[in-house]
Specification:
Layout (H helix, E strand, L loop, with lengths): L2 H11 L13 H24 L6 H14 L3 E2 L12 E4 L2 E3 L14 E10 L2 E10 L5 H20 L6 H14 L3 E2 L5 E3 L6 E5 L16 E4 L2 E3 L5 E3 L7 E3 L5 E3 L2 E5 L4 E3 L3
Antiparallel strand pairs: 1-4, 2-4, 3-12, 4-5, 6-10, 7-8, 9-14, 10-13, 11-12, 14-15
Helix pairs in contact: 2-3, 4-5
Bound molecules: 2-amino-4-trifluoromethylsulfanyl-butyric acid (MF3) and cobalt (II) ion.
Amino acid sequence: MDSLDVKLWTLAAKGQIVPDRSLLKTPEQIQAIKKSADLNTAVLDHVAAHIQAGMSTADIDRLVYDYTTGHGGIPAPLGYEGFPKSVCTSVNDVICHGIPDENEILQEGDIINVDVSTILDGYYSDASRMFTIGKISERARKLVQVTRECVDLGLKAAKPWGHLGDIAWAINSHARKNGYSVVEEIGGHGIGLEFHEDPFVSYVTPKGSEMVLVPGMMFTIEPMINEGSPDFFIDEDNGWTVYTEDGGLSAQVEYMVLVTETGIDVLTR
Ligand code: MF3
Ligand code: CO
């Protein structure tokens, strides 16, 4: 038992939830995962440079596939539990897991989340951004802005030896203050050696609750913010696409972060 084991064991004995040592990345793993995250960011930058009205979401899928494979990576969603495409494209009232489609054409006024996940040399990365197409409504603009603020406030609330709930609390409070809701059953996840590792990261839990943030942990901050109710339904035909129950807009921003001894590193910016 080394001193970190003692510290984790002591916290666990006090009833705290602590990560298994296998969830704490080594310096070598961190280096390799950062390379994957850098490619993931470059893919998102590539999408940002080309996304426009008149393009289909299948065009975005091709941008992601070609750029990723052209740089030695593999799009992580492709074939993941049967997901048929290389990226998730979630337009307007789609909360997440939208499937790129030739017949879905981006129109002025749309808001879209593009969620890119990459495997490079066996290491996983994951991040998403909101894009706005042409002139959008004030209502859509505010939702996207508040969602970005939520994630930034979540990041500010995160500190080594704090708790995942601190992040959730900051996000949920800001969303609610603006009259919005946070989706409860779908959240973030550990990442790096696998696409989805422990812990599940909720964005509705109280301050000081959930897993302790131990240096070496890597996970996503990816709240889904709805302008109306947090309730949703899943497309029965494709089994993936998640829509708001009330038809209201939904936005999401996803960062992948590393807990260090001194703070929180965003690996995907
Ligand atoms: N960032 C999303 C997530 O973590 C990506 C899902 S890809 C899919 O759930 F293949 F599962 F759709
Ligand atoms: Co994710």
